[in-house]
Amino acid sequence: MAINFPIKKKVEHKAANKANLGMELEDMINQSNEYYLVNNKAVIHKKPTPIQIVKVDYPNRNMAKIVEAYYKTPSTTDYNGIYKGKYIDFEAKENHNKTAFPLRNIHPHQIEHLRKIIEHGGIGFLIIAWNLYNEYYLVPMDIVFEYWDKAELDDGRKSIPYSVFKEKAHPIKVGYVPRLNYLSVVDEVYF
């Protein structure tokens, strides 16, 4: 009796692309937002990044290709919408460190934008994925502001320790539908 083994296929490994580091988390949030929309729970969308198109190549009529473009203005945050009558706005970040989330991953204009959202009665937060631990957290902005404001001082820490996530942030469960049920955490924290 002969045993036939499957033919080995050559597997191509894609090089790590820093531009796509947050794509897995973004995909999970997008799938969750689609579920929330279809089930009439919330209307939350990914914000498009405004660009200025500079040059377009037209190889033929129906094959226009943008070959040069620039960001018009820095984008504010990744997502916004409405949930239970409240405006909701948040940024999603993936973290590949073991011990802390570097504050340099957040831009100053995003912090200022989220401060204004909260000042005007909206809900603002971060969703942080700790990729090494396969953990996801909703981080209220008061925690972020505390570390951000301290970092503005010369002696301030430039990151949020992992221990702070375990103690003060709110874990988000991963599931099938919705993929990342962050609104259940929003319910616990804000309603």
Task: Report what the structure shows.
Mean pLDDT is 86; it is low at 4-22. Helix content is 29%, strand content 29%. With 191 residues, it is an alpha+beta fold. It has a single domain (22-48, 74-190), classed as Trna Endonuclease, Chain: A, domain 1 (3-Layer(aba) Sandwich). The strands form 3 sheets. A 6-stranded mixed beta sheet has the order 1-4-5-7-8-10, sandwiched between helices. It has a two-stranded antiparallel sheet with strand order 2-3. The protein has a two-stranded antiparallel sheet with strand order 6-9. It is globular. The chain is built from 5 helices and 10 strands; from the N terminus they run αββββββαββαβαβα.
Order of helices and strands: HEEEEEEHEEHEHEH
Helix content: 25-40%
How many domain modules?
Answer: 1
Strand content: 25-35%
Q: Unreliable segments (pLDDT under 50, ≥5 consecutive)?
A: 4-22
Average pLDDT rating: 86
Described by strand count, sense and barrel closure, the largest sheet is: 6 strands, mixed
Q: Which architecture name does CATH use? A: 3-Layer(aba) Sandwich
The secondary structure category is alpha+beta
Topology, number of strands:
10
- For this structure, the CATH topology is Trna Endonuclease, Chain: A, domain 1
